[in-house]
Task: inverse folding
C-alpha cells in the first residue's frame, strides 16, 4: 500500500502540498484538482522523484526512496526531463537492463512509436515525448502506475489503445486527469486534491 503521512512540499517558501495524509489502498485512483493545485507534485513525491519538505511516504512499509520500492513503481509525467542527447532506443534498453525486463516491443507497436526509436529525444514532438514517457513507465510492468495526464498529446489510435490497456492492467493505477475517461469511470476512485490538501487525514 502506498501511504503518505503529513506530507508537505514548498517551492521557494511557497507551499504546494500542506500536511497531506492519505492511503492509496484501492486499485484505481483519479486525482482531480485545478491547474497549480499540486497534482503533478503529488505524483512526483509518491514516486520518490521529489523530496518532501516534511512528512513520510512508504510503499508496503518501505521508504519510497528504497530500491525495492522504486522497482515497484512506474511513472509518466511531462515534468520528468529525459536526457536529450540519447535516443528512445537507448533509454529503453537502459531501463530494461535496470529492471531486468524485456524490451517493450509490443507496446512500441501499439503506440506506433517504432519510427522514433532512433530519433534523439531533443528532436521528438510533444506527442512522442508522451509516448516514450509512457513506455518507460509500462515496460517493467510495475505494481503501481503513476500517470500524469496520460492521454494528453496522444493520437486517437494510441489513446484508444492506452485506455483499453489500462482497463485490464493487473496492478494499481493512480492518474491525474480532467478527462471523463477517468473522472467519470466507476472503476476509478476520485480524489479531490483541494479537499486533501487541508492538513487533515482522509482514508479512502
Result:
Amino acid at each position: 500500500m502506498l501511504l503518505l503521512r503529513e506530507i508537505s512540499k514548498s517551492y521557494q517558501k511557497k507551499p504546494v502540498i500542506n500536511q497531506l495524509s492519505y492511503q492509496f489502498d484501492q486499485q484505481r485512483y483519479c486525482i482531480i484538482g485545478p491547474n497549480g493545485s499540486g497534482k503533478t507534485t503529488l505524483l512526483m513525491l509518491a514516486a520518490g522523484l521529489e523530496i518532501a519538505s516534511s512528512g513520510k511516504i512508504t510503499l508496503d512499509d518501505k521508504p519510497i526512496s528504497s530500491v525495492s520500492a522504486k522497482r515497484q513503481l512506474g511513472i509518466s509525467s511531462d515534468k520528468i526531463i529525459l536526457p536529450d542527447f540519447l535516443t528512445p532506443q537507448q533509454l529503453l534498453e537502459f531501463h530494461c537492463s535496470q529492471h531486468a525486463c524485456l524490451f517493450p516491443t509490443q507496446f512500441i507497436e501499439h503506440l506506433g512509436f517504432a519510427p522514433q526509436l532512433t530519433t534523439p529525444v531533443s528532436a521528438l514532438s510533444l506527442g512522442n515525448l508522451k509516448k516514450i514517457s509512457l513506455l518507460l513507465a509500462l515496460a517493467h510492468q510495475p505494481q503501481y502506475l503513476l500517470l500524469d495526464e496520460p492521454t494528453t498529446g496522444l493520437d486517437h489510435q494510441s489513446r484508444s489503445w492506452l485506455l483499453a490497456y489500462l482497463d485490464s492492467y493487473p496492478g494499481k493505477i493512480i492518474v491525474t486527469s480532467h478527462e471523463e475517461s477517468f473522472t467519470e469511470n466507476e472503476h476509478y476512485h476520485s480524489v479531490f486534491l483541494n479537499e486533501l490538501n487541508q492538513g487533515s487525514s482522509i482514508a479512502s
About this structure: The chain has one domain: 2-203. Residues 163 and 181 are 8 Å apart (CA to CA). The domain at 2-203 is CATH 3.40.50.300 (Rossmann fold).
